[in-house]
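In this section we walk through a basic example: taking a raw amino acid sequence and producing a predicted 3D structure, encoded as discrete structure tokens. The instruction is simple. Fold the sequence below.
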Amino acid sequence: MPPDLKYRRVLLKLSGEALMGERECGLDPSMFARIAAEVCAVHALGVELCLVLGGGNIFRGLSGEAGGMERASGDYMGMLATVINALAMQNELEGRGIATRVQSAISMQSVCEPYIRRRALRHLEKGRVVIFAGGTGNPFFTTDTAAALRASEMGCDALLKATKVDGVYDADPLRVAGAKRFERLSYHDVLARDLQVMDAAAISLARENRIPILIFSIFENGGFAAVVQGKGRFTIVDDSE
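The resulting token sequence is shown next.
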């Protein structure tokens, strides 16, 4: 591992909303290109990379439930949306020369591999970027929880949550002037203050497996590469008190 790398193997969690760019819904090709460029820069450092993409830019199970749809059906539709995003990201990365594999928790072998832990680990060891799709494969679990689960299974050194802002604040900094930014938080702080970093199940899973969560802005050029080197602006959530 190069001496300037703080994390050897990481999982990047991207929300579906981040993939919309300036659109109201759907896929923004310019955002996929931007994120792929960030991923390529980190891959070039020698970091072993896996990704979990949300599906909220296409469909959200909770919004379906609000419209009268059964929650489980809505969640399965959301899982399928994550596969669409994963295939789009795979296409963008491979167009840049990065070997990529998509593994889905919902079997659809004509378009991607089924999720097999040992196979995923082997892909990472060979320098391939692995994109995990289909959430956990179960309704009532978010892609945040899926990210924490896969990071645990892959033995990741850190879980990186890419957002629109450069860390965790006590209020939405895009709406509240003077919102306080945190440099470091404990898992307990996040849960006790209900800071909405990730859902409670994801935070608890990361805490149990001692995986630090780093929250940073995907909109800052070079931000992802800086974070994996322990630089740049981010909030770290770990077991410190």
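Looking at the output, two observations stand out. The longest helix spans residues 71-94. The two ends are 29 Å apart (CA to CA). In the next section we compare this with other chains.
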